[in-house]
Write a structure and sequence with these properties.
This protein has 312 residues and is mainly alpha-helical. Helix content is 71%, strand content 3%. A hairpin with a 4-residue loop joins β2 and β3.
Length: 312
Amino acid sequence: MSFAAMMVIAVALDLVIGWPAWLYARIGHPVTWIGALIHRLDCQLNCDSDSFKRRKQAGVLAAMLCIGTVAGSTAALQAVMSGWQAIVIGGILAWPLVAMRSMYDHVAAVADPLTHRDVPAARHAVSMIVGRDTQSLDDAGIARAALESLAENTSDGIVAPLFWGVVFGLPGIATYKAINTLDSMIGHRTPRHEAFGWASARIDDLVNLPASRLTGLMFAAVSARPFEAFRTMWRDAPKHRSPNAGWPEAAMAAALAVRLSGPRVYADRSVDEPYVNAGAADPDATDLRRGLALYVRAMVLGSAALVLLAWI
């Protein structure tokens, strides 16, 4: 069975159809189904009265239950399929787990008002895709937050699921999304989740290692400054707070000749992080548009690679 061909079908459906609002209203989305399971496990296993060690152990159990449920069910489904029908059905089932179209739409929703100097609308749009406090962001802060989200989520939301889908088929892409959703929901250093979400965060770091580097290489390859982008990525990615996000962010920063990462404010704390490509200027609305164009070129490259793998 060609798992690459399965992923080509998923990408094609995502680009042409997306995930329609009417379908979401009727059945939700696979990620929300996984999220409901994680929420239930969090409520039942994460007891505030338990010790740090016990909550950490409970978090390992929760991660294994969620990952095992998704991996087991999708592996069983794939095992009973064969031939071209399996590729088509697997591609259809993988379709909602690819976010290529929605990634562009969410960032374009920030770029449009920012281009027209509608800062309140741009702040609201960027608050939909980042976790930091956006109320005090100026034009540069909005553009920087949107570009960082675009870079990181290209890896987490598109390249990583497709990578694992090519390797393992439907169980690969579905299990990756389960791991990524675990990290998104409970993999935070908050009083409630520092212990319980420890395992989920570490597993997510591990499964994102190959895709984050690959995404950075893709951004570098389609940029007008490929060698500079590669050098900056190699130099600055290890400075980032995340073992993975720094690779695509540094590559995009150098490709656009802007600086990214750096200090930011969350609801409960301020974070003083180093910049990547620190000597460059802050981004603006034009740079955000250029970032979207870079993203499109990278996705064309990635889609072409998928088609080639499917053909081989």
